[in-house]
């Protein structure tokens, strides 16, 4: 649940234009938007990854650097892939993220989030956040970098564990025995089985 809440707060980046110059303000202002969206649409998207994708996708996708994440997750396989293969991976990977974490959403009410400080590290900015629900606390760090289109999310660290690192290890294991094409095909098939076209 901690991973999921961190991800949901991270991915809904409907940032006000004025927040684009300050990543901490971006996180703070969008957190309120995230919680409002979950309150507004939570009942209709619980247990339905396709509905979640349709509600959150238009807001999510423009504010996450999926190409950067894909390159970090796949490493040399990303470098060796052509542009079309990379694009197909990104499409299925972002659907898979919402499919995986969307199915974990059961109770989206009662969360409180407090944005902490921001620090620059290795050319990136890390913004901390405490997420609380009752007695359960989780520390999340958003890792962002600046692009020509503003600040974009490139990793999420929850309780000291990197989302990108987890997926890199997962794909590295899968790519020992299978090709990237086969893995993309499998992801697309699983996504189609739950209603993605």
Describe this structure in words.
It is a single chain. The chain is an alpha+beta fold and 197 residues long. It has helices at residues 2-11, 23-45, 49-60, 66-74, 76-80, 83-102, 163-174, 180-193, and strands at 112-121, 124-133, 136-147, 150-158, 161-162. Strands 1-2-3-4-5 form a five-stranded antiparallel beta sheet. Helix 3 (49-60) packs across helix 6 (83-102), helix 4 (66-74) packs across helix 7 (163-174) and helix 6 (83-102) packs across helix 8.
Identify the notable features of this structure and list them briefly.
globular, alpha+beta, Nuclear Transport Factor 2, Chain: A, 197 residues, 5 strands, 5-stranded antiparallel sheet
Spell out the blueprint of helices and strands:
Layout: H1 2-11, H2 23-45, H3 49-60, H4 66-74, H5 76-80, H6 83-102, E1 112-121, E2 124-133, E3 136-147, E4 150-158, E5 161-162, H7 163-174, H8 180-193
Helix pairs in contact: 3-6, 4-7, 6-8
Number of helices: 8
Write down the CATH class.
Alpha Beta
Query: Which stretches of 5+ consecutive residues score pLDDT under 50?
Result: 1-5, 10-19
Overall pLDDT, averaged? Answer: 81
Q: Quickly give the CATH architecture.
A: Roll
CATH superfamily: Tgt2/MlaC
Total count of strands: 5
Rounded to an integer in angstroms, the radius of gyration calculated over CA atoms is: 16 Å
Largest beta sheet, briefly? 5 strands, antiparallel
- Alpha carbon gap, first and last residue: 28 Å
**What gross morphology would you assign?**
globular
Helix content: 40-55%
Structural class call reads alpha+beta
What would the CATH topology be?
Nuclear Transport Factor 2, Chain: A
How are the strands of the biggest sheet laid out side by side? 1-2-3-4-5
N to C succession of SSEs: HHHHHHEEEEEHH
Portion in beta strands: 15-25%
- Tell me the number of structural domains: 1
